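Issue 218. Parser rejects a valid record. Input:
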Amino acid sequence: MLVSAIIVLACFIAVIILILTNKMDRAIAAICGALICYFVLVFLEGQDAGLIVTFLFGSSSDGYSGLNTIALVLGMLLLVQVCSEAGVFQFLAFRLIQLTKGKPSFMLIILCVIATLIAAVLNNVLSVMIMIPLTIMISRILNIDPEPYILTQAVIVNLGATFFSVSSVPNILITSAGEITFAEFFLNVGTLSLVILGITLVFFFLRYRKRLTYNDEFVWVLEEYNARNFIPNVSLLYKSIAVLLAVMVSFVIVPPTLLPPSIIALLGGIILVLLSRMDPKEIIKKLDFDLLLYLLGIFVISGALETVGVIGLIGDGLTSLSGGSIYASIMITLWISAYLSANIDNIPITKVLIPVVGVMNQGFPADTQKLGNYALAIGANWGDNLTPMGDNLIVAALAEKGKRPIRMKEFMKLGFVTTNLQLFIITIYYSFFLGESMIAFILLLGVSIGIGLFYLNKRRKKRQQR
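Output the parser choked on:
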C-alpha cells in the first residue's frame, strides 16, 4: 500500500507540474495520470477494474455524482456555445454600458457587475474574453484610459464563479458530492458573493477614482452606436435568452428528486440547439471536450488517492491541526484551498479536497458539515487572483492584442490585495456566525487599520512626489 500511495501521489504531482508548465495538454496529462493509477490499483493493489467506473461515474450510494457532473457540464457547455453564437452577452452588456452615458464611476460599476454576472452564467474565461475586448472598444470610442476598467473586471470575475452552483466546475463538483441544492448554494454562498461584490466595488472606486476620467466630447458616439451590430440573428437572441432563463429558473423551482440539475441543463442545451437551427456538428466541434476529458482523468486520479489512503492521511493531519474545532476546520479549508488554487488549477484541488473536507468534518451536524463545502467553494474560486497565473494571463494577452497593454505589477498588486481583503471579510463573517466574536472583532480591527495605513502611505508617497 505504501508503494502504491507514493506512486499515485507522485503521479498527481507530475500531472499538476505538466499542466502548470504547459509541457502537455491538460486533458492528455490527466488521462495519462489516470492510466498509471489504473495499473497501480489493478496490478499492485489487486482492485477490481470496475472500481475505475465508480471513480468516473459514481455509484448508487453517492447518486452517481460523477455522471451528473459530466452531464451538467456538458449541458452548460451547449447552452453557453449557442448563447455566445447569438451574441446575447455582448448585446446586453453594451446596452447597459450605453445607459451610463460614459460617466466613469457608473462605467466602473456597470462593467464590473456585468463581468461578474456573465461569469456567474458562463465562466471566468469566457467572461473576460467577452468583456475585455468590449472595454477596449469603448475606451477607443470615449478616448479614455481602459486600464482601471480592465484590471477591476479581471479581478472581480471570480466572485461571479460563486454566485450559483453551476457557475464553475469546482461548484458543480462540490454540490454534487455534498448533495447541495441550487437554492442552498445561492443562499449560503451566492448572497455572500453579492455582499463582497458591493464591498469590492467600493474598494475599487477609492483606489482608482482619480484615474477615472470623463470625456464628454465623444459620448455621442457611444450613444449612437447600434448595439444590434453584436447580433447575427435576432430570433436566435430571443430564443437563447428564453431558454437560458428557463433553465436558471428550473434549477430553483424544480426539486432535485424530481429532475436533477444535470438533466435540466442537458435538456435546456439540447432544446436550444434544436431551436437555433444551427448545424449540430458545428456546435459540437466547438464544445470544450478537452475539459470533459480532463475531468474524467482527475476523477480517476482523485479516486486512486482516496483508495490508497493519501486522502485519509491528509484529512487526519488537517483534523489534528484543527483540534476538532469546526471553526478551525472551516478556516483551514478556506485559506488552504485559496492559496493552493492561486498556484494550481482549482479543479484537481477541489476534487482532492472534497473528501479531505469530509474527513475533517466527520462527527459534526449535517448543516455544519456543509459550511466546510461552502468555504471550499469560496477558497477554490477566489484564490485564482492571488497570483497572476493561469486564467489571469488571458487578460494580459487580450489587452496586449487590443493594443492597450496593462502593467502586470499593478495587476499582481490589485489581485493579491483584493483577494486577501475578500478572504478576511469572509473569515470575519464566519467568526461571527460560529460564535467567535472576539476573533471577529480583532480581525475587523486589523483589516480597518491595514486599509487606513495603506491609504495614509499612498498619500505620503504622493506628497513626496510633489
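Fixed in the parser; the record now loads. The mean pLDDT is 84.
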